[in-house]
Amino acid sequence: MRLKNGLKGDVKSQAVEDQLRNVDPVLGAGEQYRDKKHEIELVLCEDFIDLDRLRDLAISPGGFVTDELRRKAWPKLLGIDVDNIPEKPADEVLHGHRDYNQVVMDVNRSLKRFPPGMDQDVRLGLQDQLVDLIMRVLVRHDELHYYQGYHDICVTFLLVVGEDVAFALVEKLSMNHLRDFMDADMDRTKHILNYMYPLIGRVNPDLRDHMEKSEVGTIFSLSWLITWYGHVLPHLRDIVRCYDFFIACHPLMPIYLAAAIVMYREPEILTTDCEMCMLHSLLSKIPDNLPYEELLVQASELYTKFPPDNLACDVILITKRNQQLQKVRLQSRSRHKQERKKNRWLSVFYQDGSSVYCKVTFWTLTAVVSAVMIAYLRSTDWELLSGWWT
């Protein structure tokens, strides 16, 4: 069932601001970027905002520095008029959507996405609004399909800007940066993941060879990609910094960051046994102390040196190879299924697999003897036989 509480409307009140500032330093950050903060404020105050300059500020170290500036800068970057946001539909409209129950279940499990120490009533209010925020996007765009992880992106925007503006931001991103993740299947998501190995191979062929030999694949980075790292980074300040970067960049930038993270961890990877389970276990856990500013710079450099068009042929080959492997696996699985069905009768004769031929022979002889006796009895003079019983 959906969480209920007494907080209604947009909960980005001063009380919520104070809660977030106390439990996560992101709202109070910015002293080391004082000059940059002032520059961002000047850009945002202009009648005609220089979007290229604003984009550069989002990408460069520190991003937009504080959530106060993000509330102004994010809508500007995405071309959103915060004074003209569509009203929320009635509850029966939101609750009638095909994905409503799944959204509620995911939001009810999202406790760890709220800063520790947050007042329970505030958190419950935010969770209710998170459900509404997600449903507002989905009911307006029937072609979009909810996926588990989408709520991790939405909650980040909710914590920073509140429900109404978060809805407008997420709606715009869902039609652009996040669109490939919101298909009815995962084909385009898998295609994006296939950029990782070509990127790694351009810079570090030995690392690519090691990972391909282990057959670790790219599934370890799926949650990084589809949640914009919101599900895997422990601190809100690091998540919103990545969001500054992603909003201002090409939609494929999250996979460039993934490649940068993997290459940063090269020493760990190459000293780990070249086995799928070992490398998957290592890579699926992102260390808490990664130098994110440095990694964002490296991701930008990767994009400049190897833009998506430069990698397209390699990615297509990987995609076709993976599709062929999947086809072979499905065919093999089908053959095994047919063989199991064909040989299932043998289980009648033995459970432990021993003395197979003896047991089959015994039952075969028994069947033959029985058939002979039946034939004999049918041909016998029953009057003669009846005398035997007297």
List keywords for this structure.
Helicase, Ruva Protein, domain 3; 390 residues; mainly alpha; globular; Cyclin A, domain 1; 3 domains
Please explain how this structure is put together.
Residues 64-250 form the Rab-GAP TBC domain. With 390 residues, the chain is an all-alpha fold. The chain has three domains: 14-29 and 66-179, Helicase, Ruva Protein, domain 3 (Orthogonal Bundle); 187-315, Cyclin A, domain 1; 347-381, no CATH class. The chain has 21 helices and no strands. The longest helix is centred in the C-terminal third of the chain and has 35 residues, at 308-342. The termini are far apart.
Topology of helices and strands:
Blueprint: H1 14-23, H2 34-45, H3 51-59, H4 67-77, H5 91-95, H6 100-108, H7 120-140, H8 150-161, H9 163-174, H10 187-193, H11 196-203, H12 205-214, H13 222-226, H14 236-248, H15 253-264, H16 266-270, H17 276-283, H18 292-305, H19 308-342, H20 356-379, H21 382-386
Helix pairs in contact: 2-4, 3-14, 4-14, 6-7, 7-8, 7-9, 8-9, 11-12, 11-15, 15-18
